[in-house]
Amino acid sequence: MQESGKNKLNVEIFGQHYTVVGKEPVAFLRMVAGHVDDTMRQIAAANPRLDVTRLAILAALNIAGEYFKLKEAYERLLAQERAPVGSVPRE
Predict the structure, then answer these.
(1) Considering the entire predicted model, what is its pTM?
(2) 51: helix, coil or strand?
């Protein structure tokens, strides 16, 4: 469903239903919700006694960690691309 340039999608994350609204394509919103659900399920499988709130916080921390690692790698790549030829150390 689309309203004023935004997409609206009903998703299920860890057994709870949510309505997600965003400017991104529906497939992207579904992928993001799926990633959150998968992360929560992986953590729950390893820690079956955690309550949903703690699972959500741990999932958020894991996803934020992934984000910052990727951002750092991206920034390194940009710096290498902008560096003069021959000044980038080889690994």
Answers:
(1) 0.82
(2) coil
